[in-house]
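This section describes the prediction task in plain terms. A model, or a person checking by hand, is given the sequence of a single protein chain and must write out its three-dimensional structure as a string of tokens. No templates, partner chains or ligands are provided. The sample shown here is typical of the held-out split.
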Amino acid sequence: MTPIVTRSGFFAVLFLVSAAGGSAGGSAAPSAAAPYSSARECAACHQTIHKYWSESEHSRATSSPVFRAALTQAVADATDPAAARRECVWCHAPTALATGDYALEGAIAREGVSCDFCHTVADVEMGRAGHPFELAPGRVKRGPMEYAKTPAHETAYSLLHKSSAHLCASCHEYRNAHGVPVLSTYGEWAAGPYPARGQTCQECHMPLVPGTTVSEGLQPTQRRINLHRMTGGSTPSHVATGLQLRFGTVALGASSADVEVVVTNSAVGHSAPGGLSTKSLVLAVGVDTGGAELAHRRERIYRRELKDAEGHVLATVGDLFLKAASVGEDSRLRQKEARTERFTVPLPAGWKAVVARLEYRDASDPAAPKTRLVIEERRERAR
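The expected answer:
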């Protein structure tokens, strides 16, 4: 076997390709030397965990329309289509690092970020040139339980899975070919107060919830499991746990109100919002007049802009990865930051309340952007 080193954005990955004719890109067939099991096999014993994972973005990593559109654009625009495909696929179907299935032809690759990949990573070294992942697919499954034993496979207690941010950072920190940090979630976390407190990605995004590690009737089992749904910005209730919204002052005049609102990143482990710059937080202040929409709506938008070489703000996921040449304005809320915003809103006849809303907006799909309510505060009109 001949070792091949390929650099992918901010990190690089070492994988093996058969000297007899295997290729690191294109539609190479899965390698028998690096087998991975299907998530369906894991589900036979780990039913609850599999159910949560199947509801996660990890399980949809290769099937989401946003990823498919970005992959198509990257391959079409690239001077080296095979390299572009590898660059996109290795985070969304990381089993391809060992199998070579960058064409997503096999069922295992199409499972996305699957159970057997994460639970067979032996180590991640962020500063190691060429290969952050130490891949060890096979019978040994690694996880955060120190004394887990099962006749189904071998087990190994792993601090990487229990209390390290590095496994997540391997894909959630990324610089493109121009050196622009398209994803900077890990770097933001590392620069904040949480590493010193021992608070990692898993604590927020995979919290302990009631459940059993294996199906009832099998032994041993636990009564609490990590939530494999990997909740994030797409779950408003999760976003709300890290943010606070409150009125400062509301000065009512005869025809308008001067409103002061304080929004705080109280517990998000990175800048808010995190992830791609297609994500934004929107602070909206307006008046409830009994209609479906806020009257006289005013907004502040918190987001990070990425720009192309001509200085244009980029709007699509594909463009962010391919064309981002610089970071523009970054108005996001830093860790523990409290920001006071002031608005003046008219008060129409019959108004019911002054309303402040914090919304999460995801424009990754420009054809169908999603806006979700995170928090709402009301100052009711005195009766």
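For orientation: The chain has two domains: 2-164+200-226, 236-380.
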